[in-house]
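The pair is quoted verbatim below.
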Amino acid sequence: SSPPSMSDAYSKLKVAQLKAKLKERAQSGAGEKEDLVRRLQLCDAGDKHALPDGRNPTTLKAAEFRKALASRGLPCDLSINTRDELMQSLIDALKTEGGGTSAEAGSSAGGGGGGEDADELATRLALQVLELGEAGNPEGVLSLLGAAITRATPFAAQRKAYLSLARIIHPDKLPKLGQATKAFQHLVRAFEVLTAPEAPPQAAKAAARAHTAISRSNDGCFKTHLFCPRCKSQWGSADSGVMDFDYNFMMQGLKVYCCALCLCDFGCMTAEHRCPLCRKPFEYHPRDYHRQVTCGNARCSGTFGFWLYHVPARVEDDLRQEARKEQERQAKQREAAAA
């Protein structure tokens, strides 16, 4: 992004002046003043973090822009995100490719790495993810970019590490690496394992279910749309074979599901969630399931909740017991890997 002094300078300009500057750079002058300021800041950031061919990414036409995003495993649907939002994502990725924070951290992790280009860095990290994932070490997987990530690490830092790695080692960016899909699956699993909510004791489960049955309303609630972190196909579609009440299990982080299109196993922590009001992505955590929330996106101030389907008590008890056993198995695996 632009230095604070330049940002302040743009903010002090009148709308007509901002539009004139944008016209000089062949950029759209549509939107509110804050949109115009942000667009100029993106232009300045694009000057510093150019494409491999030297062009400023803000000069790309629509087709080239979508291709640049898709080749980096980034969202590229202009009907869901604004061009400015997607441009910010692309520039952030270019910062990483150009030796920014993530690349520097990656060079310090695992030793060596000096002089690596983006493909070499991505390949090395993917192979390290594969090795650590197969060893049952999710903390090691998510710590590959330098910052130590554990189950006790704040969720925001955990998520940042996951997203940074996911952008770098997405299979679409590693077409020559035969194990790229497997490495990405290990990354997804590592984040799901490390952030999975603790299964409550049996007595607490019964009390929670009774409380939910009495006090939980579906007023203002939606069955929100979730998408696969690898191929972006929608989860839970009519032809996917999942039951309506699987939405409860998915959103509470109790179960992972297999994508019907690319066969990637994922849960609510790695799925892409989209706001039912503005259709844009938002950050979700299982603790939000019984709350009314806002998505945090610009110009979307509405609140919404998440639909609660009726689940037969026996089905829920069996699933929670299965989730607890899986957590215990993973804990033993982590202990063995650390020994």
Remarks:
- The two ends are 44 Å apart (CA to CA).
- The mean pLDDT is 83.
- The longest strand covers residues 225-227.
- The chain is about 50% helix and 5% strand.
